[in-house]
Structure formats: structure tokens, C-alpha cells
Specification:
Strand content: under 5%
Shape: elongated
Distance between the termini: 26 Å
Number of domains: 1
Radius of gyration: 17 Å
Oligomer: single chain
Amino acid sequence: MLPLWLKAFHIIGVVTWFAGLFYLPRLLVYHAEATESAIRDRFKVMERRLLVMTHIGGALAIAFGIATLATESFYLHAGWLHAKLVLVLLLVIYHAMLAKLTRNFARDCCDWSSRKLRGFNEVPGVLLLAIVILAVVKPF
């Protein structure tokens, strides 16, 4: 019964994490396109608050994922899990890059264009697609 609770909280963490990973880059696009100082200041507040929620979701997803693996260690030998963990590592790197971008925007020193940010915004969607397919289909 415990592994099911761990999986449920892992999924809640993942949903929270991805909410931030999907929306924060979109805020940065709008911020990059903003011309008025008051609007840019408002984006800074929104970005900072959303980043905190994103950190919490990521930490919960990882913590409950590790706890699930600790209770169901037979998964550690599955090839699909190894591939999924590599993609999760890429997601953590993306998250760190997003945090750095947010800090740079807060200091008004980000040189990323809105077009580059729009492309960057697509990364978590691709990773989510691959991670879900690996976790559900377990192709290898």
C-alpha cells in the first residue's frame, strides 16, 4: 500500500513541477517583450513566486520518486528506468537554466530574445512526452 501512496505524491510533485516549467518560460517571453518598467517589475514578482513553486514541485517529485524506488528496487534493473532517469537529469538541468534566466531577468541583465525563449519553452514538453511514454509503455 505504501508504494501507491509514494507514487501518488510523486505524480502530484511532477504535476506541480511541470506547471512551473511550462509557465515560467512563457512569463519570461512576455517579460522580454515588455517595454514599460512597471510591467517588467510585475513580471519579476510573478517569476520569483512561480520559481519557488517550481522548486517545491521538483523537490517533491524527486524525493517521492527516490522513495518509490527505495520500496520497489526491482525497477532499478529496468532499461526504461535508466532512460527515464537520464531524461529527468536533463529536466533538472533545464530547471537550473530556468532559475538562472529568472535571476538574470530580475537583475535586468538577460540577453535572450523572446524568440529564443519561445524555443526554450518547448523543451519540457518534449521531455514530458518521452518520460511518460517510458514510464507507462516500458519499451525496454
